[in-house]
Fold these 3 entries.
Entry 1:
Amino acid sequence: MKILIIRLSAIGDTIHTLPLACALREKYPDAQIDWLVEDKAAEFVQNNPLIDNVHILPRRDWKRRGFSFKNFDEFNKLVADLRKQKYDIAIDTQQLFKSAVFLSLSQAPRRIALSGGREFSRIFANEIVTSTHKLFDSNYHVVNRTLELAKYLGCETDEIKFVLPQLDKISKKRVDGLLLPLKKDRPTLVIAPATTWDTKHWQNKSWAEIIRAFEDKANIVITATKADKDLVDDILLFGKFKNILNLTGKTSLGELAEVFRRADVVIAPDSGSAQIAWACSKPYVISIFTSTAKNRTAPFGEKAICFSPEIPCYPCHRKKCFSKDFELCKKSINYYDIIKFLESLFK
């Protein structure tokens, strides 16, 4: 049997789909399980023991080139590669037009999607699985929703499992070098403050207060991409911090996961970093949710805790705030509460 999982973007959503791959692999150990993914999130699917073949949609290159015959050629090659595999089953886990169209293009005889898809995505599926909850139900986690597809295909879904690719020896040595300044007699606290929407960001001053509280008690590591350098610089302007390790722009996604594996605690807003840390299993994950629904996308389990505002407009799910006090949700999450929780962990 050949199965194609379609989950194009983003990083956090790709992580959320990994339990589906785990369930399928356990139920069908001899099946060929492949994945269609965009380049941004491909690193967590490539060389993953759950996945046999990875088809990469090079969205960044296509966007950079604009209208281009090369884009057209690459698209045709991608479709040809999909059809060449002669998939028995194709599963759309994203439920958008851009993902669902590949159900049809794959020419798989069974094209499966959940009910409630957007942008006319359901017209490309010939098997619609009726979900127990609506697509944007704030109190139903997207991992559980995606696992309804696994259950439909006869898989056990009682236990949620993640499997990430293992880092190669060269990259592990690079992480060894990056983390060399850390003191072995201290716990390691990783702060990953960056996210996508402005409404999902926490206040820079609050991040600085966390650093200030534990600078002399724990190894403080800051992670972010090069694009988020200004954000990190603004946070560090709140204090003359000396005992921190700033890894902004210095790690690949795989190396970032390895940094998280070696941490005791990771703190992040609603972001890909929070989901990566959750999938790593080892660290405590403290997630900060300001505009999005914690019960829908936050890490959960014994080693996860989420802080969110208790205000009437939460969760709003808006990329822009239209409130008179647009910082209300960010102000409502008191950094002191997080400091107290960290102190209980570091006793």
Entry 2:
Amino acid sequence: MTALLDIQGLEIASADKRLVSGLSLRMAPRERVGLIGESGSGKSLTALAIAGLLPQGLRSSGYVRLSGQEVVGAKERALRQLRGTALAIVFQEPLTALDPLMRVGRQIAEPLVRRARRDGETLGKKELERAVLAAMQDVSLPDPERLARSYPFELSGGQRQRVAIAMALACRPRLLIADEPTTALDVTTQKEILALLDRLVTERDMALLFIGHDLPVVAGAVDRVVVMREGVAVEEGTTAEVFAAPRHAYTQSLFDAAKRFDQAIGGGR
């Protein structure tokens, strides 16, 4: 099967430091893969490189092919065509990802208009309003008419993340990158967002690249994991294999730390 995402020898570096080294990863359509590792291991930088969104001052090299198109070295115009169509990203903190001065409904409307334009369609005002409400209902936002008129700061963290997911899916991407999408949420809301992502990825036949450091969360979201340490992939395998019998000492240390944390939390109850 042709890979949806094909990364070979990806390098990401600043002026004086290599941040990701020799990373290779292939994802098939509809596959679910997790990138796990501690903060600073290069997970989020990898996601940004896939989307062609690396911050100024960082450079990438190697081979990153997304939906048949090369990303490394591509012009911004070509990358804009890929974003939304081939992939979309849901970030960790939706409050910083959303425009604080724009009503929620208008923010969801923008990618819907782009998708319609891409498909050679024109949405009238009423059609666009219905499409916005449908997108909000699809991510289980309550009272969408009221929330569409609200600003991001007037929504809860879970509601803002649902808005971000609605915007990410508006253009019907083939790959969804979820970059620690539940870290800023309480436990109950985390479970709701994870269930929502699982349903939407399944219903829309999307691939999922789930980035996180919370091992149980990642385990419940993906079928295969890649473990990163200091910019290097140190272990890869099915979720069942890696979680049952981690081979690399670093992976084992991650699991040991998670177990100690769980025991400490349990002991404090």
Entry 3:
Amino acid sequence: MVLPVPTFAVILPAAGKSSRFRDEHYKKPFAPLDGRPVWLHAAEKFTSRPDVRQTLIVISPEDRETFESKFAANAALLGIEIVDGGQERSDSVAAALARVAEDVDFVAVHDAARPCLAEAWIDAVFAAAAKSGAAILATPIVGTIKRAAANRTIEKTIPREGLWEAQTPQVFRRDLLVEAYARRGPEPATDDAQLVERLGRPVTLVPGSPMNLKITTKDDLRLAGMLLKALPRPRLLGPAHPFAGDDLWR
């Protein structure tokens, strides 16, 4: 008996304020990186996969006019749905989750500002989620961790054994993530896995890579440009962007 291949939807949150990026022209998901916006590097890692049924990018309503003028053709070519986000990241993911098709088995949430993603890492976390119901990419903490006091002196050294840094994609059975968001309450969560943890459900850690960088600052953007050259080239379904000219970006 041949088991059915699980299907996935991918949510790309890109509605944040990018306050630490400090650029007057761009929010970090929309900044140019190797000739394409950061978010497009992230999105194209999923849109060419046969197991991804649906891809949604979540943007701030204040960015919709600009996004559509610059990137609507990119989104249309790749079949990406554009969703208006909310005040908090969880509000934005919830808005996209409400648009996920009911016949999709799993939902992956991936930061639109993580452009340096290898296909093998996606394969691994998708497979782990299909087996356990919930899985995230993460890397073990290898440095020495210090807890700081208010005056920036060391208060305590934290043992690093068993500590991991969470990354994305974070992948969950659709019904499990829907339940986690329905019961999230007012207490903030820093990622989607934390909401699933609150349900008492186990979440599998899948070893990722430090190369799976989340862009926060301009230095991160420059580093991402170098990391992209070390990754396999993405498989594109069409032109990266159908418009030409520097005025596209400004």
